[in-house]
Every structure is written in structure tokens, then in C-alpha cells.
Specification:
The complex is a heterodimer of chains A (334) and B (107). Chain A has 334 residues and is mainly alpha-helical. Chain A is built from eleven helices and no strands. In chain B, strands 1-3-2 form a three-stranded antiparallel sheet. The chains are: A mainly alpha (334), B alpha+beta (107).
């Protein structure tokens, strides 16, 4: 087997197993026949790699196979988790302004107003989309997320042209917000198109007060949680990565013991958590590259982000192997 | 029907072809405009086979590797004819609006 053939076969491992069984040999033959017409090479062309990546994503997300349905549900979970976190994280600041400042202090300091309005719109848009998705109002959810993306674009533009408008922005989270908004729109559109229902509505509703409690606890100044007390760092990629890591570790622990079936609800998180972790690391890298390149913070942050990425990849691979084992065993039993 | 699927079906009208042959035929038919990547081709073939418009038609050994041929089914011919009629009607409509006689529309 030549190096090129090996590389093509490795690339094709991105495709779902069932599809690969049906098409791999023929695809490799076509790749190598086309390569015979060209100058000898050892590398896969970027355009070819991209076509396979697109095909793999399409097959996993829009197909009717069990695996495709599982991936769509995982996307649904990712979308819900992001919406939930964004809107709950915005609640304490709005509460602080209207309850502590306006109600108890009988004053409304205008200097804080833009930021508070920004957070209030986050609650309305993300919270609205979260509940709309849970209660199957997908058009409404999509509309709210599109508004969220529009708000990001407008406030980023205003902040860049005049410092007077910068109160709306919380640098450097704008870029992350924009990416999240676009990603959410894509996820909701996908779910909307496929008429998929979200499983475990009650669990998601319970998660609202639980997440709120966790955020209030993390932000408590007496606890001195290092990354949670200053400004808005709960929106940070580090926290996302930590959250995804904890979910993966707990899922792995739960699946490691006993003999769970392939239909176990936690298996959905085995797909969703690595996607969340990937978004967190990608958002963090984007911030490091675009907004703080060369700064001291960036220099210190790179090794930290790298270590996070390694831990998350190890967890994701371990989870994947365990899930595969469970599915294989379930298939053998049935 | 996507443009790629349309061209794959057109390529198969002349007879069974393997993946490599389809890529070359589509490139020639589209006068170099449409280069089918292998990932894209097999995504299209998978869908066409699933819809019953194309089916595998034997294999041969080439350079020690298995080459699979594909041929268009009767339903594939029907679907292509339907698509052709739809595109012709669209083209006539546009030509009529443009007043371009070259497209066979009213001037």
C-alpha cells in the first residue's frame, strides 16, 4: 500500500462506518486512478480533504441512519446548553442593577445602563430561544437567534466607530458571541429542518435553576473562585472547556461501570460534550489569535489552552472508545 | 436535482461507467466547468443509488484494485427527462423575458 493510499484511507475514516463499508474501496480506487493521471504525489489535496469533511458532516447530520439521528440530537443538546448558559449567566447582572441599585439604593446609575440593557437583551433572546426550542417553536427560536447575531454585528460595529458606544460591548467576548450566535442559528436551522424533537424537556427545565445556583455560587466573592469573580469571565472559553470536560468525565465515569445499553440517554452527551469542548477551544484560539496576539496574557494563555485541548481530546477519545464498545456489545446481544 | 447529480446522470446515459470515468465524463460534458471531487461524487452516487436512479453494474480488477461500474436505471432516465423538461421550460421562460432568440424564446 502506497503512502498516498494510506492517507486516503485515513481521511475516509471520517465517514460513518456504514457508509465506509459500502463505498471505501471504490472511492480509494477512484482517488488513485485520478492520481495516476497527475505528477506523483504523497499528499491528499486540500480540496479533496474538504469534500470528504463536508460529506462526513452531511451524512452525520442530515442522514436518516441511527448515527445521523444521534448526531442531530447531540447538536440539539449543544445548542440548548449554550443558550441556557448564556441567558442564565446574564441574570445576576440584571438582577444586581434593578434590585440592588434601582430598588434598594433608589438610584439608576446611567453609566451601567448600556451594559445592563445588553445583558437584558441576552436574557430575552437566548432565554426566549431556549424555551422556544424546548416547546417546539423552532421558527421563533431561529428568529431570536438571528436577532442575537444581528445585535452582535451592530454593537461590534458601533463599538468600533465610537468609544461612546463601547459600553454595549464587553471586549473581547464580542467575537465569541458572534461565533456562538452563528453556530446556534445553524444548529436551530438544522433541527428545524429535520423536525426533530428535543428529548428530556423536564431535565432541561430543571437545569435552569441548577445552572443559576451554580453561577451565583461561583461568583460569590467569599468563595474566591479564581476565574469566576471578575467581570464577565463566566462567558470565557476556559469555563466552557471546564464545563465540557466535567460533563465528559462524569459521562465516562457513569458509562464505565455496569452494562449500559446503546439506548442509554447519556450516550447523547458522549457526542454533544466533545462538540461543546471543540467550540470552547476554537473560540479560545480565535480570541488568542485575533485579539491578544503578542500580549503577555496571550503568551501565558497558549500553554494553558494547549493543555486544556490535550485533556479534552483524551477524554473525548476515551468516551468514544467506551461508547463504541457499548454499541458493539448491544448489537451482539440483539 | 443538484447540478452534480444532473451531470452524473447525463454522463451515465451513454452506458455504465466507474467513478473515475464519471469524473472525466462530467468534466468533458461541462467543458471543464464542473470538477467533481471524489467526496462529492460518492455523496451524489449514494443518494442516486438510494433513490433508485442509479445502480451498481458489475466490477473489474484494475491495477490490482476493484473498480465498480454504475448504470442508470429506468427511473433514472425518467428523472433525467423530467429534469431536462423543467430546465428547458425555465430556460425558455428566461429567454422569452430577455428577448434572446438564441435561446429559442420570443424576440
Amino acid at each position: 500500500m502506497t503512502v498516498l493510499e494510506q492517507r486516503y484511507r485515513r481521511l475516509l475514516t471520517l465517514l460513518p462506518a456504514g457508509y465506509r463499508n459500502a463505498w471505501e474501496e471504490d472511492m480509494v480506487e477512484t482517488y488513485l486512478s485520478l492520481a495516476d493521471d497527475e505528477k506523483p504525489r504523497r499528499r491528499v489535496r486540500m480540496a479533496e480533504a474538504w469534500a470528504v469533511v463536508s460529506l462526513a458532516a452531511r451524512l452525520r447530520l442530515t442522514g436518516q441512519s441511527d448515527a445521523a439521528v444521534r448526531w442531530r440530537q447531540a447538536v440539539g443538546y449543544v445548542v440548548l446548553a449554550i443558550l441556557l448558559f448564556q441567558f442564565v449567566a446574564a441574570l445576576p447582572r440584571v438582577r444586581w442593577y434593578f434590585v440592588d441599585m434601582v430598588w434598594y439604593s433608589y438610584g439608576a446609575p446611567l453609566i451601567y445602563l448600556p451594559g445592563v440593557l445588553f445583558e437584558a437583551s441576552t436574557i430575552l433572546l437566548c432565554g426566549g430561544a431556549f424555551f422556544a426550542l424546548l416547546f417546539r417553536k423552532r421558527r421563533l427560536a431561529l428568529g431570536l437567534v438571528v436577532l442575537l447575531a444581528a445585535r452582535e454585528a451592530v454593537t461590534m460595529f458601533l463599538g468600533s466607530v465610537s468609544p461612546a458606544w463601547s459600553g454595549f460591548r464587553i471586549p473581547p467576548y464580542g467575537a465569541v458571541y458572534l461565533s456562538l450566535a452563528v453556530m446556534l442559528a445553524a444548529g436551530i436551522f438544522l433541527i428545524y429542518r429535520r423536525e426533530m424533537s428535543i428529548a428530556g424537556r423536564r431535565g432541561w427545565l430543571i437545569a435552569v435553576p441548577v445552572t443559576w445556583g451554580a453561577i451565583v455560587l461561583l461568583r460569590d466573592p467569599y468563595l474566591h473562585v479564581p476565574f469566576a469573580n471578575d467581570g464577565y469571565p463566566l462567558l470565557d472559553g476556559d469555563v466552557w472547556a471546564l464545563g465540557a470536560g466535567v460533563v465528559m468525565a462524569l459521562t465516562l465515569l457513569r458509562l464505565a461501570f455496569g452494562k449500559p445499553k446503546a439506548s442509554h440517554p447519556l450516550l447523547l452527551w458522549a457526542n454533544a460534550a466533545p462538540v461543546l469542548a471543540g467550540i470552547a477551544i476554537a473560540a479560545e484560539c480565535w480570541l488568542l489569535v485575533t485579539q491578544s496576539i503578542g500580549s503577555d496574557w496571550s503568551l501565558h494563555q497558549w500553554p494553558f489552552t494547549g493543555a486544556q485541548a490535550v485533556i479534552l481530546v483524551v477524554l473525548a477519545v476515551a468516551l468514544r472508545l467506551r461508547v463504541r464498545q457499548i454499541r458493539r456489545r448491544s448489537a451482539a446481544v440483539s | 436535482m443538484s447540478e452534480q447529480a444532473f451531470f452524473v446522470l447525463v454522463a451515465l446515459t451513454a452506458g455504465p461507467l466507474h467513478g473515475y470515468g464519471i469524473v472525466g465524463e462530467v468534466l468533458a460534458l461541462s467543458e471543464g466547468r464542473l470538477t467533481l471531487r471524489v467526496g462529492t461524487l460518492y455523496g451524489v452516487l449514494d443518494r442516486l443509488v438510494e433513490e433508485g436512479l442509479v445502480k451498481p453494474d458489475g466490477e473489474e480488477i484494475h491495477n490490482g484494485r476493484v473498480r465498480r461500474y454504475y448504470r442508470m436505471t429506468g427511473e433514472g432516465r425518467q428523472a433525467l427527462a423530467e429534469e431536462m423538461r423543467r430546465q428547458s421550460a425555465n430556460a425558455r421562460l428566461a429567454a422569452g423575458r430577455l428577448g434572446d432568440v438564441a435561446f429559442g424564446g420570443a424576440s
